[in-house]
Design brief:
The mean pLDDT is about 90. This protein starts with 7 loop residues before the first strand and ends with a strand. Strand 4 (about 70-80) and strand 5 (about 90) form a beta hairpin. It has helices at about 40-45, 60-65, and strands spanning about 10-15, 25-30, 55-60, 70-80, 90, 100. Helix content is about 15%, strand content about 30%. It is α+β, with helices and mostly antiparallel strands and about 100 residues long. The chain has one domain.
Length: about 100
């Protein structure tokens, strides 16, 4: 059973994985470290002994395909684990980003 967590407005940045093993795309999203993580997410990550800042994000593929590496997004997202297969952040693919900030030139 997946985690029962709330959705939060969180900031992410696109980056390229060093090793693509098991992922469809080398381009992924991760949390920006310059933000406060909600205690609900922080507590669950602490229980699993993992940093929320290394978790990958499941989201609309258009965010990965249509924007360059380094683009920042504010998304409504939650922590989940899809039947105990490991923690990740999830933003419903039909939701538009709350904010998009292009990478610095």
């Amino acid at each position: 059973m997946a985690l029962n967590q709330n959705y939060y407005e969180l900031s992410f940045e696109s980056f390229e994985l060093e090793k693509v093993s098991g992922h469809k795309s080398p381009k992924q999203l991760r949390l920006l470290k310059s933000q406060t993580i909600p205690s609900e997410i922080e507590s669950e990550c602490n229980n699993k002994n993992i940093s929320p800042f290394i978790l990958l994000t499941e989201c609309s593929k258009s965010l990965l395909l249509n924007y360059p590496i380094g683009t920042k997004f504010k998304l409504k997202a939650k922590l989940t684990d899809k039947e105990n297969e490991g923690l990740f952040l999830y933003s419903y693919f039909g939701w538009k980003p709350l904010e998009i900030i292009p990478p610095a030139p």
